[in-house]
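Deliverable D2.4 — example input (structure tokens):
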């Protein structure tokens, strides 16, 4: 579903990252709806636990895989891939030194790409929401 990338970023900051838990759950559902699989092949809860156990390292892998999967969806719809995989990895690593603020930017970037997928006319697009 389309969401404002700026609002994803802002809500992530205001809620100290708690909004991202909800955002990732929704993105997992949407990616599974679009491709038939989650970004890692695992359920969200398993990936969430792995992220905690690895002190966020698994989260970097998840973001990379989300970017790769988004590119696959874009190409399948005849659109140019965004090649954001390395950008999100660099931003995620940099977030370890910026009190996670840059990590929120990664989610906003991925939401912007996901919005392009929905704008391209995803056949199974869920209803748009305003948040």
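Example output (designed residues):
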């Amino acid at each position: 579903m389309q969401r404002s990338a700026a609002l994803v970023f802002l809500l992530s900051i205001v809620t100290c990252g708690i909004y991202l838990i909800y955002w990732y759950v929704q993105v997992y559902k949407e990616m599974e709806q679009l491709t038939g699989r989650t970004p890692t092949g695992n359920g969200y809860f398993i990936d969430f636990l792995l992220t905690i156990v690895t002190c966020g390292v698994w989260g970097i892998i998840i973001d990379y895989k989300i970017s790769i999967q988004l590119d696959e969806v874009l190409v399948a719809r005849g659109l140019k891939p965004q090649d954001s995989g390395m950008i999100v990895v660099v931003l995620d690593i940099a977030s370890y030194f910026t009190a996670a603020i840059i990590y929120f930017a990664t989610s906003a970037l991925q939401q912007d790409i996901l919005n392009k997928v929905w704008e391209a006319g995803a056949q199974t697009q869920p209803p748009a929401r305003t948040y």
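The chain has a mean pLDDT of 91.
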